[in-house]
Predict the 3D structure of the following.
Amino acid sequence: MRRAAPVRRASKAASVAWRLLLGIVAVVLVAGLGWSAWVYSQIEHYAHVDEAAHADAICVLGAAEYSGRPSPVLRARLEHALQLYHHGIAPMILTLGGSEPGDAYSEGQVGELFLMANGVPERSIIAETESRNTEEQAQRIVEIARTNGFQTAVVVSDPTHMFRIHEICRAEGLHVWTSPRPQTVHGHTWTEWQQVGHEIVSYTLWRMRLA
């Protein structure tokens, strides 16, 4: 019977280690859920608040283009920026977005052509044509603002993008106001929930300096 004691002690140690592991996992899960809930609340806030105010420039994030024509998403962003411009929000519009391999046009170029076709003079547009994703576009906004002496900007994109763009620009010292493009459907669709999930992950990776 005495020989069984080491086995019992080993079993007890394993049980303690297992409970400790479960406790750590539970803490991590709770912290992760709490963080995700906070980021979600910020995404929702910026998605439903139009902060548009007088600024040095209006910045339109790129989206897909089809052989020189803006996709419905890009067109909606450009039309919203156009309204802001005509209301005197800013004297300049910055269009952003690169191109996919083989494309004849970039998103920024298509945005510029659309705005010019709708009465915005070429001298009032800056087309950025290299950025490939939201982080790069936010960084390019900051770089172009510094080059041109812009102190403030109004950023136009989809509602779920607003929080992350705001935070990236703010971290680089640029004062931005966000103005999400109007949505035709109220409430979250499955695609929008996917976008929200993507934004939570992307923002978290950015804060952890992993993206």
